[in-house]
Design a protein that fits this description.
- It is a single chain.
- The chain is mainly α.
- Helix content is about 60%, strand content about 5%.
- It has 10 helices and 3 strands, in the order βαααααααββααα.
- Helix 1 packs across helix 6 and helix 5 crosses helix 6.
- The radius of gyration is 18 Å and the shape is globular.
- The chain starts with a strand and ends with a helix.
Length: about 240
């Protein structure tokens, strides 16, 4: 278990990470609508969650579900969360890592990047899940893509985080995120909690690693200078 707390990398191209904050605000709004809105959580999940069996036409929902074309549930499920802990964990990762990744590509490209990573995560889950009837919800796939991008952009930046059972440590990103990724990988292939979409996390991470070289600023002297400073920093 790893929970990031603070990285301290200043923004270079923007004053405010508007897209990151907007995504966090949207996820919180959808959570409030899910649990305190008029239609209830079951209908929200059935209407906007990704059900692999429905996506692949092996299962049919009652009339009126989902609320959007089934292909769009690959993206709409990203905004849904099943509990306050689920929401808080994803939003904490997005808050710590999202601003610097957004800074590296701009507001609009960051939103597109986040959605593409989320869709890739949804597809990865849909193709490998042993339970195609269980809905997939949560921003974890998109967040995993952001984490991968951050690792590529700032591998040596030191991150404050809580590790294992809440031990506070300040470690380079490649150690902290490497520990997080190893946990995701082991849980996916060695049998973690069945309620968690581990392969969605891995799919989102892979998508983020592939997309960040394509979607960051083509040549950014500020980022290049930061990366050079990281390489020269004492370990």
């Amino acid at each position: 278990m790893f929970l990031p707390l603070h990285d301290g990398v200043p923004l270079q191209h923007m004053k405010t990470p508007l897209a990151t904050r907007a995504l966090i605000g949207l996820c919180i709004l959808v959570y409030l609508l899910t649990f305190f809105g008029p239609i209830g959580p079951d209908a929200m999940v059935g209407g906007f969650g990704l059900i692999p069996g429905v996506l692949f036409d092996t299962e049919v929902l009652p009339e009126g579900f989902p609320f959007v074309p089934v292909e769009l549930t690959l993206a709409t499920n990203i905004l849904l969360h099943g509990s306050l802990f689920h929401l808080a964990g994803n939003m904490l990762f997005l808050w710590v890592f999202g601003d610097n990744v957004e800074d590296a590509m701009g507001h609009l490209r960051f939103v597109l990047f986040f959605v593409l990573c989320g869709v890739a995560a949804s597809l990865a889950h849909a193709f490998v899940t042993p339970d195609p009837h269980r809905p997939l919800i949560g921003a974890s796939g998109g967040v995993s893509g952001v984490v991968a991008a951050y690792l590529i952009l700032y591998p040596r930046v030191r991150i404050w985080g809580l590790f294992l059972k809440g031990i506070p440590l300040r470690l380079p990103a490649y150690w902290a995120i490497g520990f997080w990724f190893a946990f995701q990988f082991a849980s996916a292939f060695l049998g973690g909690d069945d309620a968690v979409g581990w392969f969605a996390h891995l799919g989102g991470f892979a998508a983020g690693a592939i997309l960040i070289p394509l979607m960051r600023h083509r040549y950014d002297p500020v980022l290049a200078r930061v990366e050079a400073q990281e390489m020269q920093a004492p370990r």
